[in-house]
Hints:
By secondary structure, the protein is α/β, with parallel strands linked by helices.
Amino acid sequence: MLSAYGSENVISPNFQRLAEKCTTFDNFYAGSLPCMPARRELHTGRYNFLHRSWGPFEGYDDSSVKMLSDHGIYTHLVTDHWHYWEEGGGVYWNQYDTYEFVRGQEGDHWKGIVDHETPPHIDGRTDFCGRQEYINREYMKEEQNQSIAVTFSKGLEFMEKNKDSDNWFLQIESFDPHEPFFTQERYKEMYPNDYDGPQFDWPGYHPVRESEDAIRECRRNYFALVTQCDFYLGKVLDFMDEHDMWKDTMLIVNTDHGFLLSEHGWWGKLLMPYWNEISHTPFFIHDPRRESEGKRNSSLCQTIDIAPTLLDYFGIEKTEDMMGINLGKALDGENDREYALFGQFGLHVNITDGRYVYMRAPRKKYENVLSNYMLIPHSYPGAVDVDTLKTRKEGREFTFSKGIKVPSYEGGWYVKTLKGFPPKEVYENGDLLYDTLSDPGQNHPIHDEAVEKRMIEAMVKLMMENDTPEDMYQRLGLLDDGYYSPLK
């Protein structure tokens, strides 16, 4: 959706300006999805989704942010990502020296109105989260009160206060352009539309059933929100220009995952195969130690690489449990990663070599074979109830758990929060193989036994290197098909 990647849909001059100041990565992938699993990777530099669902920072985890702080690097977080202060999102912010929360996004339990009528919509949520979103909007009618504006204002305040100081790390984390696509009229006016139906800026996670007019309206709202994000990104770039910060400051701009806006016949990012619109993410980096301005990089990289990169910038060695690579290697043309895994706990396990993408589906006969390894038994709100706690098993020690045996619980967070999950689409779609060189839109799965065998063998190798629990191999049919045995 960004002009820096060739799109003509969205007005994003500051992302284009960013690309002129940075190296733009063309082959950057998510690791663990969605929100909180990705944030655990930002800290730990290793995959979350192979052994655990959505959950908090664990006591045995290495935090790159805490390591920075321990080495005298001041760390500060400004965020309106409300999942941090929800059940299942805890302890991450405690790794920073200081942090600021900005309230009001989505279903954040922020403002209280007892009698409130939710406005008409096509597919906006009608549960407590949905009702709360529309209450919160009552307090953000003016742009300066909107969460994204406050978040960037606080981030810029930190930069102003500390522009003359050395050795600090700032994370400005904007929930937008996450759904719902709530934005101001001045951004919507940039995308004229004659749609006269009910309000539609909050698609669900399901196959598309709306009219073409409604789809265009939803996409319009998304485009407008991205343009608003672009506006506030521009404020950061202006500040760096004004204070000549490019000469000694690393800048990384990235996201955790994408979203389907009717592509492949789907809305969302949760139930369907993780096509490139969801998993293949934009990534920009400016490294003042290197000539990185205006360059493109085709190295295969992903979210787990951010932690080692931050540590390296301040001269700190990554821990032995961090599986990511320092992106400096990619900038120097020395990246040796051949494959990258990505996915969500319990769904397809996916692998790419930068050209081919192979998606391995769980087998229907093993749908109840899924162990969720959690030291702290918290997950998405409502997922870990008394019945889930009763399934606790002693668990196992992992290579990365510092000698601690991690208990396991049956299922994942979605078992308790979404009816009829895993959805039939997980099994009906089955295994998928795409050649993104000849089919960048991933519209036509291919059948190539040699490529599939190579990708499966690489998948198993990476799963083993990441100490994946045995039942995950069974769930994916890798035991039955002879690609893995416990003796390996």
